[in-house]
Amino acid sequence: MSSFKITAQAAAVLLALSGGAVQAAQPNNEINTLKGVVSELQKQLQELKKSNSRASAPSLEQARVEELAKQVNELRAQLAKQQTAAQATQAAAPAPSAEGESAEAIAARTSATKADVQGLRADMENYKYDQSRLQERNIPSVTRNTKIGGSVTARYDYQSEALTPTNSGGITSPNHHGFAPLGFALNFSGNLYRDYAEGRDLTYRLALSGSNSAGSTTTSLTDAYLRYSFQPATGNVEDPLGTVTLGQQTVAFGLDAQATDPEVKAVINNAGFVSGLSLGTRQTGLVLAGDFAPYVDFSNNYRAPLLSYSLGLFNGNGANRGDNNNAKDIAGRLVYTLPVDYSSWLRQLQVGTSYYRGVTSLAPTGGTTQTKSGTNNRYGFDINWTHLPYTVTYEIAEGKQDLISATKINPDGIQRGRGQYLNIGYTWGEQFLKSATGVAKYDDFWPKSYQAFVRFDEFDPNRSGLSLNDKVLATTLGLNIFFAETTKLQINYTSTRNQTPTADKPAKVNSVAALLNAAF
Amino acid sequence: MKRRSFNSALIAGLAAPALIGLGTQARAAGNPTTIRIGFSNAGSGGRPLSSGTFAANAAMLGDIEKEFATDNIKIEYKYFVGAGPATNENFANGLLDLCFSHGDLPFLVGNSTGLKRKAILSGSRGGDVHLIGPASSTAKSPVDIKGKTLSVQKGTATQLQLYRVLEKFGITEPEKEFRIISQIKDDQRASLATGNIAGAIDTPFGLEARGVAKRIVSLYDDPLLSSPGTIWVGEAFESQYPGIVQRIVTALVKRAHWSTLEANRETQYQLWTRSGTDTYLDNKENWSRVKDLRTRINPLLDDYYVGGLQKAVGEMKKYRLLRREVNMDFIERKYLNHALAELKLENYWPTQDAQGKFVRT
Questions:
Q1: Which has more confidence, B287 or A107?
Q2: Is the pLDDT confidence value at A507 over 80?
Q3: DSSP state of A348
Q4: Distance CA B268, CA B61 (A)
């Protein structure tokens, strides 16, 4: 009977343990109870052994004793396991805090359990899966490193004189104001080869520009070139820069002629000489550009290359065209920047000179076959001082162009034009400071900037003494508002005087243009 | 261009400065509307957070905002990814009132070029310096990588620290004996991974764990390898709002005291980890050697602060990093002294002599 009692107790304890073993946190008093039961069983086992040895128990009793001994051993093993689990739980639980101890300090001496680590591992695996899924399904991919950009340009014009619209199509009547057709641009640029060791990278740029006119959209290629850095471009600002660019690109002549896209124009309309002297057009060719002896003021991250240069060889007949003759045009530009500290008032004082030697194929009016080859040279000089908030720019350019034949006002067969402008500006806001745009931020904050300016522009298409009073004079008052890194609103009031008025160019026109350029 | 037009242009140009009022911060007669505070560092990935100093703690815990909550004064923090030089540029353009962390080199060079500001607290001091190289490097000393490329963000205090480390190993003409290029920290780490630089000063633990770098040499708590960072206020702001400056200094000293308490050590590790500059384990390992937090978190403008900056001036001249003289009259102790007295902390912090030896412990 006693053996039955012992077996029943052992079974009850085993049942209790099997249920409790899966619980991570058994209260200490339960363990103590179990200890008591085991101890009681051990006691009873010893007594049974004693009585059996005295009575020379038969083999059945001996088997029962052995069975009991086995059960007790199992109970011991389970008890030990239970105690280990209880100790681990106690270690994982937050220790009581000492007076003044912070929650972080208590957390620092609280161990993580294996389950915590497994949970963290599962979280990481989930994150890795999410990232790879996102990468595969929702992120566009490219073969080579590529950056995509572009812009949309909207414009509204008002002029004091009613003029016949040139790009509206259909039946028109002279008007004073209206929205201009939207302009847009799309560009791709990136690294074809990144030289991690020396920074001699091979990059590319492909840009398209579109305009709507008379009901249709015209898209044309603007930039398309490969560029190789023959000087290391590792980001070390003390290193000189040097690149070779092959393809269709802007020509480094002066300052305003290079600002051909709305994204980079400070004034809505270019200076008169840019179109008057046929500058500002892209050309296809090879350009070597870079700088020498950069002066670096590390106290303000200011870099002033002593001498910047650009030398180009072009077809000379404009963008998106094959060469029309055997001659090549040459463009050269040198810019000297004063090597002074950022704190100097002469900071960013630059003097530049430009030269363009062009060769043109000439033919009589209406002809398409060259009958004569002529020169079409340009000379430029510019001086720019950008010491924020002040900006002063003066630029002059002259053109000397052979004509097919001598004319009444150009008896030597050469037409000479000249244009110049003076731009004085004042900028307030932080957008043009590297320190401000480089401020760490969580949001899409971008410092706004405002730029007020006045520009006096003059262009004389023919300086011949026999061609007097043919100048175009334009005074522009403007305000540029830079909302973000790439979004600006420009409002220009321009008073234009045409000394030789025509139907579409009255003697005096006052106009207001508002242009919104949003780039991405 | 006709003379009349040209004269008009000149008049317009001369009138332009009148617009300045539109660009500068509008200030009430009594209080500023905004206090603009800079940090010469930022968290990784452009996070607007700083770490490792009591001023960083003050910013993260909103001490200055709380101090001026009832005065309707906005606090604007600027964390400059471009480090100390960017702080100079921003201040030079009138866009900053105070700076809570500025290293010796950019602070002193900026002062030499005419930037007017007053040092009101010492922002940080001491620390370990590790020169690390690519994982494949076999160098055991800077001498082993002579002639190779080292990277540092020039114009920052780390540039001077690199030169001091090199000098400790007998290299006195660093620009001649190495090719030293200027890179920001993220680029330095990329260059280490690709093996394109032979060494840089950086915290090694995380990079070693990723297997992209290894330590060439580690120098622990050498007071002559670094000089204290500076917390400064622009002279114009200080002369206009001395009361405001005092309240800021008192709030910072109070937070400095909190930061030295052992009970808050772990809280700080957790705070600093938010910036992502160093991992939690890096912070813990870096600071576990500091048994008494007061020795590294110390706002005093003591002999060590003054001597450290004077030493830095000499070194900058020697390395041709300074083109003009620096007038050392920029130290203004009255705000600190008042705060220490008010908080009864006059004798709380240890003081060090110009060589970094502890005088009062």
A1: B287
A2: yes
A3: T
A4: 11
- C-alpha dist (Å) from residue A328 to A247, A286, A332, B73, B318: 14, 11, 13, 65, 53
Average pLDDT over residues A175-184: 87
Side chain identity at residue A254, one-letter code: G
CA of A104: which chain B residue's CA is closest?
B267
A438–B114 CB contact, under 8 Å: no
The dihedral of CA A401, A402, A404, A410: what is its sign? positive
- Rounded Cα distance, B96 and B109, in Å: 17
Backbone angles phi, psi at A238, to 5 degrees: -80, -15
Beta-carbon separation of B86 and A234 below 8 A: no
Lowest mean pLDDT across A52-61, A324-333, B116-125? A52-61
Q: For chain B, positions 146-175, list CB contacts with chain A under 8 A.
A: 154-155, 159
Cross-chain residue pair A196–B16, CB shorter than 8 Å:
no
Cβ atoms A176, A199 nearer than 8 A: no
Sign of CA dihedral B148, B153, B154, B160: negative
- The confidence band for B155, taking pLDDT boundaries of 50, 70 and 90, is confident
Q: What share of chain A in percent tops pLDDT 70? A: 87
Strand, coil or helix: A165? coil
Residue B43: CB atoms within 10 A of its CB come to: 20
Which of A101, A234, A439 is facing B80, going by the closest CB pair? A439
**Gyration radius of chain A's alpha carbons:** 42
Indicate the pairing of strand A390-402 with strand A372-387: antiparallel
User: Which one-letter DSSP state was computed for residue A92?
Assistant: H
- Per residue in A277-293, pLDDT (tens digit) is 999 899 999 999 999 99
Contacts of B339 (CB under 8 A, 6+ apart): B246, B249, B250, B252, B253, B254, B345
Where is pLDDT greater, at B4 or B235? B235
β-pairing, A283-297 with A242-249?
A: antiparallel
ipTM for the predicted complex comes to: 0.80
pTM: 0.79
What pLDDT, on a 0 to 100 scale, did the predictor assign at position A88?
59
* A382, A386, A508, A511 from A348: Cα distances, Å: 13, 6, 37, 33
Kindly give, in sequence order, each residue whose CB lies less than 8 Å from that of residue B79, ignoring residues fewer than 6 positions away: A439, A440, B38, B39, B41, B42, B43, B47, B48, B49, B50
Which one-letter DSSP state was computed for residue A111?
A: P
Q: What integer best gives the mean pLDDT of chain B?
A: 90
Q: How many CB atoms lie within 10 A of CB A9?
A: 16
Q: Calculate mean pLDDT across residues A234-246.
A: 88
pLDDT tens figures, B12-53: 444 444 444 343 444 445 899 999 999 999 998 889 999 999
CA distance B101 to chain A (A): 15
pLDDT grade for A36, boundaries at 50, 70 and 90: confident
Distance between A96 CA and the closest CA of chain B, angstroms: 15
Q: What residues does A510 pair with on adjacent strands? A: A495
Using only C-alpha atoms, what is the Rg of chain B? 22
Of the candidates B2, B109, B184, the beta carbon closest to that of A299 is on B109
Reply yes or no on whether the pLDDT at A242 is more than 70: yes
Q: Is A42 exposed, middle or buried (0-12, 13-18, 19+ CB in 10 A)?
A: middle
Element containing residue A518 per DSSP (H, E):
strand A508-519
